[in-house]
Amino acid sequence: MQLTLVGSGLQLKTDYHGGVPRKSLTHLECSVANTVEIVNDSWTVLILRDAFLGVRRFDQFVESLGIARNTLTTRLERLIDSGMLDAVPYQDNPVRSEYRLTEKGKDIFDVLMTLWAYGERWNPPSDPDHQRVFHVDCGNEAIAVTHCSHCGERLTRRNVRIEPPSPVVVTAGLESIA
Amino acid sequence: MQLTLVGSGLQLKTDYHGGVPRKSLTHLECSVANTVEIVNDSWTVLILRDAFLGVRRFDQFVESLGIARNTLTTRLERLIDSGMLDAVPYQDNPVRSEYRLTEKGKDIFDVLMTLWAYGERWNPPSDPDHQRVFHVDCGNEAIAVTHCSHCGERLTRRNVRIEPPSPVVVTAGLESIA
Question: What is the DSSP string of chain A?
Fold first, then answer.
């Protein structure tokens, strides 16, 4: 594990994953890689989901997720280090903190909504009364799809392209796949 | 590791993660949990990204991602088992396969687009000439936001709610967070 000065602050450049040092993904020069370097495992995503649902305290996360306490500690520390959660003390003796989403944490909303929609389509929970997201304005289940933030039109595999193209493939661009 | 009959087919109920058995997340009865149970680590997401970019062959993935061959083998097997990739032979002797996105794999598009947008906002690559996604129809960079698939309106933290609410929090619903 090595602390390196990157950009404006201290950043963990390698990480231990089940005891195996993992290489940083920043060399890929890709925004997807940079996001999954933070949101890189199931627990991290589920802790963020719970934070959106209003879960704030350590024992609430344990109860909600059935996560081991040491695993939760590690994941919360990473989310604080990456700037997605703030630890806000709510008790002095002993010190206890609530974990609150920062602006950077709240901005993961769109990612969570697409993960939710994908699960509803392909791996819905077996319990018919499982938690669902609803769009308050229209009253229907909020199955998220992506739109272009500039023009507002629906984004599809066929109307986006990558620039510059990947050097390892002959025909580059998302539109090249059926 | 244990194979159990779940729903219509055989499903791996526990998984080894760095040598540590990991509990299945299906007990959470949550679509986010069910999605991250498949798309559960950085390499898996990046392999899917590459598949969208047109990468098909084992050595192309190695070259593009700098991923260890045994790691790639494990992740490709998982993606095939989960129904997101098909292995299609392109050579007989020795047998070599291309890895192609299935419909279930192609449908992860919206998730990738939101991961991409998040990275562009919060952790953009240092190289100013890094790969970007463009919306062909309007010509601008495709920074994805989520809309309701039913009514087409923008989804935000304030116009969605969860039902039923989480039992561990007093005020449930995404609208409860600032």
Answer: --EEEETTEEEE-SEEETTEEE--SGGG--HHHHHHTTS-BHHHHHHHHHHHTT--BHHHHHHHH---HHHHHHHHHHHHHTTSEEEEEEETTTTEEEEEE-HHHHTTHHHHHHHHHHHHHHS--SSTT--EEEETTT-SB--EEEEETTT-PBP-TTSEEEESPPTT-SS-SGGG--
